[in-house]
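Checklist before submission:
- one chain only
- standard amino acids only
- sequence pasted in full

Submission:
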Amino acid sequence: VVLGLCACAISGAITPVFSFVLSHLFYEVSLGAQDVNAINTFGGIVLAIAAADGIFMGTKYFVLETAAMFWVTKMRNTAFRRVLAQDKAWFDRSENSGARLVQIIIKDGDDARRLIAIVLGQAVVVITMFSVGLIWALVSGWQLTLVGFAIAPVFAATMVIQTNLVTKFETRNKRAREEVAKGYYDVRLALGR
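Returned file contents:
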């Protein structure tokens, strides 16, 4: 996970560097391509940065997905062993039905895997990208950067609204999956009897 998060941080830091070098390339081209040597240099740097970004992006997905899958598999094995160690009375309770156990061990495990594989990695990428870009902007021209902070409350409010909506729909989706799973196992039990 730490290796994957390092790849995420590098991938996040590469994006502002890429945009800076690409803007210099565009500037040189917009001058009428007078300095071919500068265009070739910036073009090579842009290609190298793009290749490095692709490598680190692929590395972050591979490493985090692999680590998350190992973690979920370990958690499922531990949960399965603990479920099998319970006595019969534990299984007779409605909260420990087969549908509920499958929901918790399998479906909730997949949600937890996504948390490590996708959410954690993307959070590190965004935080790193924002930090590097902000520091770079403050060093380059702090006055204009401070003007840019004026839209920060709008951005924060938008993110809060989006997070609340996503949470609401994820909760509704989880409840619907639980109902479908319960219905499936109820029908299966009825047909088996």
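Reviewer check: Helices lie at 2-30, 36-84, 88-92, 98-148, 152-192.
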